[in-house]
Amino acid sequence: MSRAAQTLHVRSINHHQAPTEIREMAHIDPAQAIQLMACLEAREDCVSVLPVSTCNRTEIYLETVPGADVDVILHDGLTAIGHNPSVFTSDFVVRLDGLEAIRHLFRLSAGLESMMLGEPQIVGQLKDAYRLARKHHEPGPGLLRAFQGAFRAGKRVRTETRITNGAVSVAFAAVELARKFFSRFCEHKALLVGAGETGALAARHFLQHDIGELVVINRSPEKAVELAATLNTEKNASADRPKRGCGQVSSRPWEELAEALGDADVILSTTGALEPVILPDMVKAAVAKRKGNPLFLLDIAVPRDVHPDVKDIGGAFSFGLDDLDDIIAGNLAARESQIPHADRIIQEELDDFQSWLDDIDLRPTVADFKAYLEDLKDKQVGYVRKKQNDEVAAAVDSSLQQFIKKVLGQSMATLKQAETPEERRQNLEALRRMFSAEESDQPPPPPQ
To answer: Using an 8 Å Cβ cutoff, are 64 and 9 in contact?
Structure first.
C-alpha cells in the first residue's frame, strides 16, 4: 500500500453489524456534520473529514497525516460537538483503512452494501454529504478524488450491469406485477387502500410508471388527503414528469371503499387492520359494476386485507405476499448474479485510484514544471508575434505545446521508474532545482 493510501480511513456503523438502536445513537445530522468537519480540520493530524449518515448507516471518512491515530481523532472530535464517542469505539464499528476504505466507498456507491442489493438511493445520500462537505469545508485531495471515483464507479455498475433490474421490495414488486396486467398503464386506474409508509412508497412507484389515475383511501381521511396532495406536489415538481394525462391523484373517504373498488382496475391494499377490510360481497358488487372488465387485487398487508374467499370470485384476481415473494426472490437472484461483474468494475476504478495515489507526490513538482515551461512558451511566442504574423505565431505556439507535452511525459516516466522512494525524492528535488534556478532568466531571443 502506498504511503498516501495509508492516510485514508473510514469508521462505519451499519445495518450489517449494528442493530437499530446503535445506528440511532451513531446518527450525525447535517448541523453536527458541519461542526465535526470544522473541529477536526483544525487539527494538525487531520486533513479533512466527511460524515455520511442515513437510516441504515453512519460512516465517517477521514484523510489524515501519515501515522495519525484515527480513533483518538474521532473521539476528540465527537466529544467536542457533544456526540457520544463510545459508539464509534464499540464492537459494532467497522474499521477500514487505506484502499479497503476506498473499496468500501465504491461498493457503497454501487449499491452492493445496501440492505436491498443495487438500490440507487444511497448515491443521492452520498452526493448530499459530499456537497455539504464542499460547501463548508473542502475535502482533502484524497477524499475528494475518492468520492469522485465512487460516483463514477457507481454509475458504471448501474449502467454496465443489470444489478438494478427487477423489484426487490414488496411495494415495487406489487406495482411491477400490476403492470403485467395492462399493455397501456396510462389508460387505467389504481386504488390505494392505506396511506402509510408502504402505501406511499407503492403510490410513488405507480406514478413513476405512468398510472393513469390514482385514488387514495384511508381510514383516517386526513391522511389520504395529505398523501394525495403530497404526491401531486411531487409529480408537478419532478423533472421526470409522467406522460400528459397520466398520474392524477385524488382521495376518497373510507365510507366509499366498496364503491371505489368497482371504479378501479387494480387495487393495492396495505392497511394495518387486524382483519380483512375487502370482503367477498364488496368484490362481487365491484365485479358486476365493471361489466366484464377484470379486477386485480394486490394484498401486501399483514394481516391480510383481502378476504381469502375473494380468490373464488369470477372476474376478480387476487394476489398476496406469497406471490410477490416469488417475484422478489427471482429478481434478487438475478441481481446477485451481477455481483462478479460489478466487482470487476469496482476493481478497475480502484486500480485507477491507486495509480492516482501513487503519483500524488509527483503532481506539485510536475505542475510547477509545466507552469514554468508554459511561461517560457508564452514569452517565446510573444517574441515571434512581434516579428512575424499571427499565423506564424500560432504555428510556433502549437509546436511548443507538443514539445511541452513530450517533455512532461518523459519527465513523469523517468520519475516513476525510480527503484526506491529515496531515489524518487532525489529525482524530484533535482528537477525542481533545475527549473527553479532558471525561473528568473529570460528566454533567449528567437533566431533571426
So the answer is: yes
CA atoms of 67 and 9, how far apart (whole Å): 12
The helix/strand count (H/E) of the chain reads as: 16, 10
Per-residue pLDDT, 78: 96
Name the residue ranges covered by the structural domains of the chain: 5-163+338-356, 170-331, 362-436
β pairing state of 295-299 and 94-97 = unpaired
| pLDDT at residue 80, as a whole number | 95
Is 33 within 8 Å of 51 (Cβ atoms)? yes
Cis, peptide link before residue 444, omega less than 30° from 0 = no
Could you give the 3-state DSSP secondary structure of residue 275?
A: coil
> Whole-angstrom Cα distance, residue 115 to residue 348?
24
Q: Comparing 5-163+338-356 with 170-331, is the CATH topology the same?
A: no
Please state which CATH class domain 5-163+338-356 belongs to: alpha beta
- The amino acid at residue 76 is D
Q: How far is CA 138 from the centre of its chain?
A: 20
Q: How far is the CA of 119 from the CAs of 86, 109, 163, 167, in angstroms?
A: 31, 10, 9, 10
Where do we find the cell 476504505? 101
Contact call for residues 48 and 138 (beta carbons, < 8 A): yes
Q: CA angle at residue 254 from 265 to 280, to 5 degrees?
A: 55
Q: What is the pLDDT of residue 440?
A: 47
CA distance linking residue 231 with residue 247, whole number of Å:
9
CA 299/CA 282 separation, integer angstroms: 15
To which residue does cell 495509508 refer? 6
Q: What is this structure's pTM?
A: 0.66
Q: Could you give the residue ranges of the DSSP H alpha helices within 359-389?
A: 363-387
Residues catalogued as catalytic: 55
- Of the candidates 243, 307, 245, the residue with the CA atom closest to the CA atom of residue 277: 307
Q: Which pLDDT value is given to residue 194?
A: 94
The whole-number mean pLDDT for each consecutive block of 10 residues of the chain, a chain of 448 residues, reads 76 93 93 96 94 93 94 96 93 95 96 86 93 93 94 95 80 85 90 92 89 95 95 78 71 96 95 94 95 92 93 93 84 90 96 82 70 85 88 89 84 75 74 65 50
- How, if at all, do strands 94-97 and 8-14 pair? antiparallel
CA distance 344 to 363: 28
CATH superfamily of 170-331: NAD(P)-binding Rossmann-like Domain (3.40.50.720)
